[in-house]
Design goal:
InterPro entries: Amino_oxidase, FAD/NAD-bd_sf, Protoporphyrinogen_oxidase, Zeta_carotene_desat/Oxidored. It is an enzyme of class 1 (oxidoreductase). With 475 residues, the protein is an alpha+beta fold. Among the domains are: 100 residues, protoporphyrinogen ix oxidase, domain 3 (Orthogonal Bundle); 120 residues, FAD/NAD(P)-binding domain. A seven-stranded mixed beta sheet has the order 5-4-12-13-14-11-15. A three-stranded antiparallel beta sheet has the order 7-8-9. The protein has a two-stranded antiparallel ribbon with strand order 1-2. Strand 8 and strand 9 form a beta hairpin. It starts with 13 loop residues before the first strand and ends with a helix. Bound molecules: flavin-adenine dinucleotide and the ligand C=Cc1c2[nH]c(c1C)Cc1[nH]c(c(CCC(=O)O)c1C)Cc1[nH]c(c(C)c1CCC(=O)O)Cc1[nH]c(c(C)c1C=C)C2. Flavin-adenine dinucleotide binds next to strand 7, strand 11 and helix 14.
């Protein structure tokens, strides 16, 4: 394995410090994952199952919405429904007309207008099915909370493809609910065909995962398993060729100068910019990866004393935060995208007198974040957190980390599907080359792990076949 940086994990970076107040553990990239069989299996095989921590799936995801028709809620925080349809009665982020429009659209009693003859954006699809209000108050913040994206640019069939599929999946009507019922049946069938191994850590649907010392535990465990001789840090791939005999020739820039490594198979999981440059000699279609845009996002972690918090839904003075976090719809005019309530999600992330918050700011609709100084970003985040969660007289919090990701999350925009289809055709012509990475696998941490596990099986098969062919040739 070769990696440009001096540590493994890519954008999965977990940090900790101990100071006079106690210990703080935080994330500078992703904060959690939805558990999948591939993650719990990998954790089991690496011997880190006991490090897995699972957050209660019922912790609410809040949306901040003040004024214009929403019912009142403590601190203007509205919990998104987790139990359908039960939670819908108390769900007052939407007005009654908004709820009725969404409900009738979802069950197909308001027939959605036909799909347009071009790739639809998320805004177009959702508005067609569920109405404008659901888009602005629920889906707009959701898109921030997954892609830091622009719902006018993201293509529904690529960015939210599982939901997009529901449109054609239903047996009894055009609504998404009809499709969802069939999808639930498919999921149940898939589960019964591939039951989890009883030795793997079990999890319930809706729970969120991490590791006791943060997400980076997983890539660190992989690199320990491989051992130092097979993990080459500080190796920046600059070109990839192939010898006439079939061996790949990878050339790296390192601190000690240029190094060349030869291999029978190569899995290239670098971000689009690098893959586009390095792979295009062997796969000309990789040039199109230049078109994939990844906006800047900054992550800011600040700890505040528990006494600083307002009265919040589900909170108490000894435990003011109870939830996953809150998202900020663009209509609210608050610059930050949302805040993860890290210490409410996972245990021991900070000393008992504190709460730990991770705020993301920037994204496709706020590209200017890349040009701001860290001090200005932190100042903005502090003001935004104060507005939603803190008492007016709360003292400044303890800043733990601010990291600007200039190229954060690939946007699955219109045309993305076609770029990937071309890439797949090109890749298919170069035996032994495997292209991965979050521009292709899905952006979720779990998607990346799942794709990696499946690709590893293919590579193993390829090397086995290759070994047999060579042995035959040599005999
Ligand atoms: C701020 C942020 C928050 C997120 N939050 C979540 C979340 O809460 N939950 C979730 O599921 N997902 C989240 N994600 C998404 C998820 O973390 C990523 O999609 C996933 O981790 C990407 O993995 P990757 O291996 O494809 O890419 P990366 O992690 O970017 O890895 C690519 C690697 O390639 C290396 N590299 C680059 N160029 C070269 C070269 N020339 N030679 C050698 N190596 C090179 C890089 O150094 C890097 O290590 C978040 C992402 C970001 C940025
Ligand atoms: C506000 C910015 C961001 C926050 N998280 C991310 C960004 C850009 C990145 C991200 N978050 C999730 C995923 C994985 C998606 C998946 O398919 O599993 C990614 C790439 C998970 C996620 N986060 C939120 C939701 C609703 C989801 C989907 C799955 C789930 O419900 O768990 C909500 C959320 N994200 C952020 C905040 C502040 C937030 C608040 C409720 C931050």
């Amino acid at each position: 394995m070769a990696e440009k940086n001096q540590e493994v994990g890519g954008n999965v970076i977990s940090k900790s410090i101990k100071d006079e107040d106690g210990e703080f553990v935080w994330e500078e990239g992703p904060n959690s994952f939805q558990p999948t069989p591939a993650i719990v299996k990998t954790a089991h095989e690496l011997g880190i199952s006991s490090e897995l921590v699972l957050a209660d799936g019922s912790l609410p995801r809040f949306v901040y919405w003040s004024g214009s028709g929403a019912g009142t809620k403590l601190a203007n925080l509205h919990a998104l429904p987790t139990n359908l349809p039960g939670d819908l009665l108390s769900f007052n982020l939407l007005t009654w007309p908004g709820k009725i429009r969404a409900g009738l659209g979802a069950i197909g009693l308001i027939k959605p207008s036909p799909q347009p003859p071009y790739e639809e954006s998320i805004r177009e699809f959702v508005t067609r099915h569920l109405g404008v209000e659901t888009f602005e108050r629920v889906i707009d913040p959701f898109v921030s909370g997954v892609y830091a994206g622009d719902p006018d640019e993201l293509a529904m069939n690529s960015a939210l493809r599982k939901i997009h599929r529901l449109e054609g999946l239903g047996d009894f009507g055009p609504g998404l609910v009809s499709g969802a019922i069939n999808r639930f049946k498919e999921i149940a069938d898939e589960k019964s065909l591939n039951p989890p191994d009883p030795e793997w850590r079990t999890y319930k649907s809706g729970e969120l995962g991490s590791f006791r010392r943060g997400l980076q535990t997983l890539p660190i465990a992989v690199s320990k398993y491989l051992g130092p001789s097979r993990v080459r840090l500080g190796h920046a791939l600059k070109s990839l060729d192939r010898e006439p005999g079939g061996m790949f020739v990878a050339t790296f820039d390192t601190e000690e100068g240029e190094k060349v490594i030869k291999a029978k198979a190569v899995a290239l999981t670098s971000p689009t910019k690098t893959t586009s440059k390095v792979a295009r000699k062997l796969v000309p279609e990789a040039k199109r990866l230049e078109e994939v845009y990844s906006p800047p996002v900054a992550s800011v972690t600040i700890a505040y004393p528990k006494s600083s918090f307002k009265d919040l839904p589900g909170g108490s003075p000894s435990s003011p935060l109870r939830g996953f976090g809150h998202l900020l719809p663009r209509k609210m005019g608050i610059r930050s995208l949302g805040t993860i309530w890290s210490s409410s999600l996972f245990p021991n992330r900070c000393p008992p007198d504190y709460e730990l918050l991770l705020t993301y700011i920037g994204g496709a609709r706020d590209r200017g974040i890349a040009d701001m100084s860290e001090a200005d970003i932190v100042d903005r985040v502090n003001k935004d957190v104060r507005k939603v969660l803190l008492k007016d007289n709360a003292p400044d919090g303890k800043l733990l980390g601010c990291r600007v990701w200039p190229v954060a999350i690939p946007q699955y925009r219109r045309g993305h599907k076609e770029i990937l289809e071309e890439l797949e055709r090109g890749e298919g012509k170069v035996e032994g080359l495997y292209l991965g990475g979050n521009y292709r696998t899905g952006v979720a941490f779990g998607d990346c792990v799942g794709f990696g596990v499946e690709e590893a099986k293919k590579i193993k098969e390829f090397l086995k076949k290759e070994g047999k062919v060579r042995a035959k040739q040599e005999a």
